[in-house]
Amino acid sequence: MASSSPLTLVTQIAAQLRANKSLIPKQTWLEACLSTQRPATPLNALYQTASFRLLASDITTSLDQAQTASFPADIHNAAVKERRLPGPIVCQILDIEDMSKSRWEQIEAIEALERGEGTKGREIIRVVATEDGSDPSPGANKGGGPHKLLLQDTKGVKTYGIELKEVEGVSLSMSVGSKMLLKNAAVARGVLLLEPATTTLLGGKIDALHKDWKENRKAHLKAAIEAQGGGRPS
User: Mean pLDDT, to the nearest integer, of 116-128?
Assistant: First the structure.
């Protein structure tokens, strides 16, 4: 059972978060999180609660920017052919796109789900929306890729990352706001190159961001097509 002083508990939980997931929360954030827990709560339960809430938070406000590695200021410099970012860098996913499908194919898949249709192999089937808002089609979001991700670090800097090799957990069915850990990741011409050896999906979800992404994804895809002068295939 947790019987240490509040300050000692904060120190212990902070050390576990850093060692296990490279997450370094602000002390004020962690103190506020732990203050809502019962005094006799076991240490492991306190850690699990803090970890869950941290992964569900906006890292630009919850993580300690002074102690957490971030993207270099010139990460978008396309003149730099390639470099490595030692890290560890924690970032959150703001957008995801399946590059194996055209934007129109992605829109058509969304519209099929809106009609209550999905695919299983070559067969069109009826699907029922899930309570958590995730896509219900058995094969709608699995596989595919490589994926293009919009990533944001603790300082709010955004950059794109592209899968060089499939990264476990990355798919259109993942939650926006999920946290990703980068260690010795490569950046080429301003784009992060994601592969299993350097990229770990920590999980999590920011409900407001995920809801907005789900509701506006089709509109964003259409806007991207229009910006390139494209139209719906005949």
Answer: 50
